[in-house]
Specification:
Layout: E1 2-9, H1 14-30, E2 38-44, E3 50-57, H2 60-67, H3 70-83, E4 88-93
Antiparallel strand pairs: 1-3, 1-4, 2-3
Protein name: ABM domain-containing protein
Amino acid sequence: MHCITITYKYSGPEDAWRHAMQTFISAIDKDADIAGKFTYQVSVADDGETRIHWGRWDTQDTLKTLQSRDYFAAFASRVRVFAGGQPQNTGADVHFKTAGW
């Protein structure tokens, strides 16, 4: 399993931010080519400003498919706006994990 963690600070209007997150996640869930193969979570840290995104996918083909979608390009652009530039991101390959989610 491959994954990415994206972090940035955001203190702007919550409605615009929430709408962008919900729109992206809904598009993933509706995309028959990647649904179930790519998962995405978005959190707000306890400080109320730090935003943390986790993406997980099964293969590089799944990631390439996602990245080819117009909704991905629109979302990536919005995240850069929310972050005030390029957010920090760290990619990784999962080697060990517990059973279940």
